[in-house]
Amino acid sequence: MTVTNASIPTVPLLIDGQWLESASTVWRDVLNPATQEVLARVPFATAQEVAQAVAAAQGAFASWRKTPIGARARIFLRLQQLIRDNMAELAATLTAEQGKTLLDAEGDIFRGLEVVEHAATIGTLQMGEFAQNVAGGVDTYSVLQPLGVCAGITPFNFPAMIPLWMFPMAIACGNTFVLKPSEQNPLVTVKLVRLALEAGIPAGVLNMVHGGEEVVNALCDHPHIKAISFVGSTRVGTHVYQRATLAGKRAQCMMGAKNHAVVLPDANKEQTLNQLLGAAFGAAGQRCMAASVVVLVGEAQAWLAELAHKACAMSVGAGKDNPDLGPLVSCAAKERVLSMIARGVEQGATLALDGRAIRVDGYPNGNFVGPTILSDVTPGMRVYDEEIFGPVMIVVAAATLDEAIALVNANPNGNGTALFTQSGAAARRFQEDIDVGQVGINVPIPVPVPLFSFTGSRGSKLGDLGPFGKQVVLFYTQTQTITQRWFADAASVGQVNTTISLS
User: Fold this and answer.
1) Do residues 427 and 266 lie in contact, with contact meaning Cβ atoms separated by under 8 Å?
2) Phi, psi dihedrals of residue 373, rounded to the nearest 5°
């Protein structure tokens, strides 16, 4: 935390269509993780500012909920084009503040852009049901009504994609929104919100505040907020879910993971090794869907040496230079990853590849850790039991597919898993027997396109409805059922009937 300096840009709040300088006395530096350069300072919004943002959203809801569906959809058609037109600038900002390579930053934005495009189809997604003559002259129909003010709390690792998972679908459904991006890297999110206003989102429909635990708690507690969407750590997500639901809100919390990639010896070796490396080390391992645990089954255990050899050739550097891996997001993140590696060795793991001593020319202060592989890992070791969130691949041995399935199912997390094989029978058995929300067959990171929803399970998710897809429409709406009868004339009214029947 620092006191503001007039020479460094400050990150504004968005309240009721106005970009405002916060009155807060608590600020945080936004740092370039490759250089430690201070890019901006972000405020931790005051309680009054959070209340003002919610009040603006509450005030805008009355008119926004009655805005025709087509008018809402056209805003997101414009937004997707604005994002495409500004892709290079958005990616450069994301890379500077988060550390991702430029290519990966574009991928981050593009996966969010897909949800914006999906929001533009809200007309078919928000349709209700109708049944005629369910009783004598009685019709029943249902409509999906917006909830009111909704809120989103987003993480540092996808500062473009996750906000775009949240506010477009909520707003397209007729709600208004208060967004709290990560205080570590809010700059690209601010630019996306500016584009959303340019696309035509009215004042008060989308608001943005910044901050830490106090702001999160204020959003969970505010009586006018009806639903909260969260992506982040298990610790914070559990807190948000418990606090928000105790306050009577809907909540969906996508949290931590320990994703296993199971490799059978009949898999295409070259293709599998390449996909494993990309899924484990992309974004420096800072993905909740990273394939951080590789389970080598039977004869595939002999592939370890080649896996390490390929990983050793991966390049590390500043994201703007487009290496294979960029830096970790912060000095604290780097120190945690280094301590986890050391703890793994202490507990008996073997360093098949050690990336701790990596140095990047021209960037002496960068938060770099090279690709690291720990083998001979077993459950009970800290590196297996906890999410490392860094460029560290854990390798576990299994004798059979059944043993691998049991290993995956015994892990408390259920975000994603993958199987690499050329056997359709093995793939079918894996898909049926595995207890994980998202399954890939020869696909290492099985995050679905927005036609479907993100379906992490067990310890990786709280709430029964996921983000984007049809599920999120149900999350951001409530079903209203109308039963009606029209009488043609007075003679058809009939007699008094005290039974429950509609006939």
Assistant:
1) no
2) -125, 125
pLDDT of residue 412: 94
Decide: 393 and 351 in contact? Cβ < 8 Å.
no
**What is the pLDDT confidence band of residue 3, given thresholds at 50, 70 and 90?**
very low
The label of the residue with tokens 């029978």 reads 425
Q: Are 240 and 255 in contact (CB under 8 A)?
A: no
The residues that are catalytic are: 288
Q: What is the mean pLDDT of the chain?
A: 95
Q: Which of 39-48, 248-257, 481-490 has the lowest mean pLDDT?
A: 481-490
SS3 content of the chain, % helix, strand, coil (to 5): 40, 20, 40
Separation CA 490–CA 503 (nearest Å) = 17
Amino acid sitting at position 73: A
Burial of 117 (0-12, 13-18, 19+ CB in 10 A): middle
CA angle 94, 116, 285 (to 5 degrees): 40
Neighbouring CB atoms inside 10 A of 288's CB total: 27
Which token pair is 442? 């020869």
Position 305, amino acid:
A
473/118 Cα distance (integer angstroms): 11
Residue type (1 letter), 155:
P
Tell me the backbone φ, ψ of residue 419, rounded to 5 degrees: -125, 135
Q: Is the pTM of this model over 0.90?
A: yes
Placement of tokens 């029947």 in the chain: 501
Cα 22 from chain centre = 27
**What is the Cα–Cα distance from 294 to 239, expressed in whole angstroms?**
30
Q: Which residues of 454-476 are buried (b: 16+ CB within 10 A; e: fewer)?
A: bbbeebbbbbebbbbbebbbbbb
Q: Do residues 367 and 228 lie in contact, with contact meaning Cβ atoms separated by under 8 Å? A: no
pLDDT by residue (tens digit) across 4-59? 456 899 999 999 999 999 999 999 999 999 999 999 999 999 999 999 999 999 99
How far apart, in whole angstroms, are the C-alpha atoms of residue 263 and residue 273? 9
